């Protein structure tokens, strides 16, 4: 690696521990012993910070402008005064990071800045303009090109040495020449084996209970199945849509709540995973986890979810907002078990694109050339 220090800017104050923070922890693991690592986080305390400190990493807090307000969601609360003070807080955070780097005698030729979130890339831009530091931005999400937030981020993205995109969908959305695609790493699991359908089929969604996740369409699809008595639906997650979704529950359709260990449930209990999102996702991890377990995935036919799940290879694409299309895809598996087994084998092969070693190799290459 060309730099002797990696400075990671994270913000675990605005969401529960999840995909993006997991990726940052993977980066910490990759660079351990390769260079000095310092983490600056907008949270005062969080699961991410605890895990990072457990790896003997120098972790420091920055001043945040909001807080998580619900244990059941990733809501982020900001008052009007906090919004108005955001530029001041960001500049103060820049000064904190800049001063720390100078005190440790880490100059631009020695230290590379890694910006894990949208907020932190603004600090990366200031460190570049004022301090001369190079920075990378890891783009984990999508913003419509006509949104104010996209254009606020456009200059910081263009000026970054590299923008690491979690999917081709994100890369096409950003459209800057410095973009590189690196898929998020899948989970650490034992090598999966090809699956066969059991007499009773268990189909699951793992998602926050939010409207744009399209869970109601999944739940309603049960009534259109050819053999509904053989199929059980499980919804793992919590969120504000739960009271609305409960009207679709029944003997064969259940909301199970938050799953602490989704991989274990997938490996031991679930036959089919459904991703019924009605909005474009950047790189959802549920289908990646399912593929690593050899589980075929039914997903809506657009966005990062359709990029991960190749139609007819490791799963099936369906039209959004269509309970009948979801039911038809499930029926095809039940009526053609050999097709299910073929797609299960395809899922195992497709999971190789999200191999942790491949992720480490690509990230180290990007850090080296930055």
Radius of gyration, rounded?
A: 22 Å
Instruction: Give the number of helices.
Output: 14
* Biggest pleated sheet: 7 strands, parallel
Number of strands: 15
CATH superfamily of the largest domain: Glycogen Phosphorylase B
The CATH class of the largest domain, by name, is Alpha Beta
**Order of strands side by side in the largest beta sheet?**
3-2-1-6-7-8-9
Helix and strand content put the structural class at: alpha/beta
**Overall tally of domains:** 2
CATH architecture of the largest domain: 3-Layer(aba) Sandwich
Question: How far do the termini sit from each other?
Answer: 9 Å
If you average the pLDDT, what whole number results?
91
β content, as a range? 15-25%
Report the CATH topology name of the largest domain: Rossmann fold
Task: Tell me what the structure shows.
The chain has 14 helices and 15 strands. By secondary structure, the protein is an alpha/beta fold. The chain folds into 2 domains: 5-185 and 355-369, Rossmann fold (3-Layer(aba) Sandwich); 201-354, Glycogen Phosphorylase B (Rossmann fold, 3-Layer(aba) Sandwich). Helix 3 (80-103) crosses helix 4 (118-131), helix 4 crosses helix 5 and helix 12 (323-335) crosses helix 13.
Keywords for this structure?
alpha/beta, 7-stranded parallel beta sheet, 370 residues, Rossmann fold, single chain, 6-stranded parallel beta sheet, 2 domains, elongated
